[in-house]
Amino acid sequence: MDDVTAILDQMNPAQREAVSAPQGNMLVLAGAGSGKTRVLVHRIAWLMQAEGLSPYAVLAVTFTNKAAREMRTRLEALLGISLRHVWVGTFHSIAHRLLRTHWQDARLPQHFQIIDSDDQLRLIKRLLKDYNIDDERYPPRQVQSFISGCKEEGLRPHQVDAHGDAYLSQMVELYERYQLTCERGGLVDFGELLLRSLELLRDNPALLAHYQERFGHVLVDEFQDTNTLQYAWLKLLTGMRTPMTVVGDDDQSIYGWRGARIENIRRFENEFPDTKLVRLEQNYRSTSVILDAANALIRYNADRMGKELWTAGDHGEQISVYGGFNDLDEARYIVDTIRERVAEGFNRREIAILYRSNAQSRVIEETLIRQGVPYRIYGGQRFYERLEIKNALAYLRLLLNRDDDASLERVINVPARGIGTRTVETLRNRARQTGESLWQSLHDATSDGSLRGRAVTSLKAFADLIEQLDNEAAGLSLHEIIDRVNERTGLVEHHRNEKGEKGQARVENLEELVTAAKAFTQGEAFEGVEAGEGMAALEAFLAEAALNAGDHEADEFEDCVQLMTLHSAKGLEFPVVFMAGVEEGLFPHKMSMEEPGRLEEERRLCYVGMTRAMKKLYLTHAELRRLHGKETFQRPSRFLREIPENFMEEVRLRGQISRPVTTSRPSPGLQQNGVEGGADLPSLSLGQRVSHPIFGEGVILNAEGEGERARVQVSFEGEGDKWLVLGFAKLTPL
DNA sequence: TTTCCCGGCCTTTTT
DNA sequence: GGCCGGGAAA
Q: What is the residue range of the signal peptide feature (predicted)?
């Protein structure tokens, strides 16, 4: 039993209390950087070693695959044994597992497919067309979020009360039709995975009893991010008798807009019997300046569970605040400072630039490129979400299931093979009348003469292609199937003929898909699936692609500055953090400023951003910003006022750049065209690239004055910033 | 049927 | 500034 105490080694009293608490419900309020994952992992180890809990009896639930993977890896490292059979996974992967195992009880076809939100949206768009519904009044995205919202609340169409409201009734009807389409195609969306698995347990008492019996302890990470459905699912699965350890932080709840219920954390404490509350407040990440500033900011939120981060470490540097006169200047300050810090010895990968919205990254990227600073953008488009990949996957799905209308429609004319919208429309109408799938109506329509000419030939060729591929697939391994699909469908050829480098990249992605498939069958890519040969592996591979779409951390090891949104920064840490665009309307975002609840979420987002920083935090804003192609005057964010001044220092403009007249008065000339140079002078605008005979190429940062005497400030590569008089300097716009 | 151009739109994102 | 969708032209 001596290794039992080893589990508690090097832990602070609160951590130790959480890890070694006797079995029972426990809520761990874990502040940022308080060693949350460590506590969770050690808790599981403790339960197994000190309480004698069988590895089979553990269920650990996370939100992302990454978190699940990390938990498993760390647990294996701690215990020194393989834990492949332990149930550690995301809500969705666990729900998926239940549905695959009990597909009959769940009233699903054996080979049901998972669709992502993109597929879902396409399906909805088609539905609206099919039923001739005005997509101005019912925008597809709104319909989608209505349907997802219902599922997240655990509601089926008949359970939604429209109060006789025409708009809502229509929505409910769309939900119902959408659901029918999914059922017919054997399609399950993300919300459906959870809702269906909840219903599976709810409607099969024996099954429920089995799992309630099986799991001896359930652990949940990021509990503040659970939605109503996930909460209900946990409640059902544990019967509120199986003890739970849930870990969360109400101050880091930033996903309310996608259904997360911050109040679940309070509800848990009240509803689940004898819940023990443990607070982890000691922070191992940041300096006390950063923590005190973050604590002060978050105090402006009402109704918190209450928590104050502290550190035994250093006071640290003040938070630097820089107000640029425009977004270019802000970017330049950030990049200049990064270069200084790198020269001092920081690695680039230790530095992160965080922003509220993706659009902000462009200007920063351009500046980084100009100054030759390598960077990497986090997030962005995922591999399995790329157009060419989704097309290939759609063909693969058709191999498994011809009745998958969404996939069929996606690729029936990709690459173009003469099956236009009119032809597809005919098929759709027919399918709607007969209640059959598109695949079936394709066959009917080509044989009974209701379509003629070229359409029939093309449709037959398409059907033959699919059948042939299916036949050939029988003897092939997974990656061979995919390779053949890429070639035989003409997808590779199609992209090879595309002009520009885009096509080349797409061809490479298709090849990468083959490589990924090879890796998938070779390694045990994920638990519970015996990756067999060919078609059997294909099904597993497709599920993996849908559930684990985000796995693309390729050049992680290159030394790059890290760029990402504040949302994607959650859970990460960096020695040096820049938060850019700390301005009213941008952060807090104007869409979230009206409602107090949403404003508080913005504040939590700011809190999350600040607490990413270990040693040094920079907050920057700009007075004038180009947003959606328009110049806007911006005011510093209220969050800057909410952080006590004594933690911050204002950065002085270096080099005494005089503040240009043009930024302090709204000049229509500047806003539309920049500097009007007069008849024979070039017309220039802020941010424009220009070339100078001596200084070379640069970018216009600033401008003042008019006509011949107008001056512009240009940032030249290698030469620094210079003020030039337009009448003399020979500037050529690029 | 396909391609190209124009106008309107614009927060955050995982599964 | 860039993306998407719709409509018109080829």
A: none
Q: Is residue A702 part of a domain?
A: yes
Residues A518 and A402 in one domain: yes
CB atoms within 10 A of CB A578: 28
* CATH at residue A149: 1.10.10.160
- How large is the average pLDDT for residues A662-690? 44
Residues 543-582 in A having a C-beta less than 7 A from any atom of strand B are 547-550, 564-565, 567-568
Question: Hey, how many other C-beta atoms are within 10 angstroms of the C-beta on A449?
Answer: 8
Model confidence at A553, pLDDT cuts 50, 70, 90, reads low
What pLDDT is stored for residue A524 in this prediction?
54
What is the Cα–Cα distance from A209 to A205, expressed in whole angstroms?
A: 6
Domains in chain A, number: 5
Burial of A503 (0-12, 13-18, 19+ CB in 10 A): middle
Long-range CB contacts (within 8 A, 24+) of A65-70: A65/A90, A65/A93, A65/A547, A65/A548, A65/A550, A65/A551, A66/A550, A67/A37, A67/A221, A67/A222, A67/A571, A68/A93, A70/A37
Residue type, A199: E
Tell me, in Å, how far CA of A190 is from C1' of B13? 14
Q: What is the mean pLDDT of residues A352-367?
A: 92
Rounded to an integer, the average pLDDT of A230-254 is: 96
CA distance A686 to A684: 7
- Which residues constitute the domain of residue A360? 319-382+551-650
Of chain A, the percentage scoring pLDDT greater than 90 comes to: 55
Query: Which candidate in A120, A252, A562, A634 is catalytic?
Result: A252
